[in-house]
Amino acid sequence: MPHEHIHNGCAGESHEHDHGHDHDTSDLGPQDNLYSHVDRGVVHALNANGEGPEVIKPWHERLDETEYLESDADDQMIIRVPFTGAVRLRSILLKTGPTDQTPSKVVLFANAADMDFDDVADKTATQEFDVAQGREVGEYAVKTAKFSNISSITLFFPAAQGADTTRVYYVGFLGHWQERNTGIPITVYEAQANLADHEKITGTDGNFSRLGS
């Protein structure tokens, strides 16, 4: 199954783990967490009681329930998440609920930064997952080949599991980030830039000409 609990505790335990454990950090590897590469100021939620950045939390706040997004007019919600560079996504992390406020599924769209509710009916999802109920963070491993060079991801929650509204506490991402390629080689010095628009570069360095176009 694509869903797995991050904590090692059994679902039948009577107590909850509300604090961090050393094995969480070592198992997931903080260096794999893309929190610092999310452009939080531009994260935007549609049909929600908040703006969107509330659920993009640092790793140590992933279990916190004081801030969350809840759907507004009905139980559908969209969260649009842009990154500050090119991302190769490995998995998404979700803490949702509680109980019947858990979304029935999460539908992912890669590189769909401006998607709204009209678009989700017309566009093909990149991948989707059923969401399990629970108070812990769930990890959903994506098909990396479909999320190998993305600048944004849109999460669509189409329905709750019985409630009138959907609630999301935490959205996280694991994967690799690299600075977005501007198309201009960093080895080109300012003194050479004057040649970029003219025939001398085209005749002597065809690769530069293509990158600069």
Tell me what you see in this structure:
There is one protein chain. With 213 residues, this protein is of the alpha+beta class. It has 2 domains: 3-181, Sandwich (Jelly Rolls), CATH 2.60.120.470; 183-213, no CATH class. 14% of the residues lie in helices and 29% in strands. It is built from 5 helices and 9 strands, in the order E-H-E-E-E-E-H-E-E-E-E-H-H-H. It has helices at residues 22-28, 117-122, 190-193, 199-204, 206-212, and strands at residues 3-5, 44-46, 69-70, 77-96, 105-110, 127-130, 138-141, 150-157, 167-178. Strands 1, 2, 3, 4, 5, 6, 7, 8 and 9 form a 9-stranded antiparallel sheet that branches. The longest helix has 7 residues, at 22-28. Mean pLDDT is 80; it is low at 1-29 and 186-213.
Oligomeric state of the chains?
Answer: single chain
- Enumerate how many helices there are, as a single number: 5
CATH H-level homologous superfamily name of the largest domain: PITH domain
Give me the secondary-structure category.
Answer: alpha+beta
Q: Indicate the percent of residues in helices.
A: 10-25%
Overall average pLDDT: 80
Largest sheet: 9 strands, antiparallel
**Which CATH class of the largest domain is shown?**
Mainly Beta
Pfam families: PITH (PF06201)
Protein name: Galactose-binding domain-like protein
Family: Belongs to the PITHD1 family.
Task: Offer a quick outline of the entry.
Helices cover 14% and strands 29% of the residues.
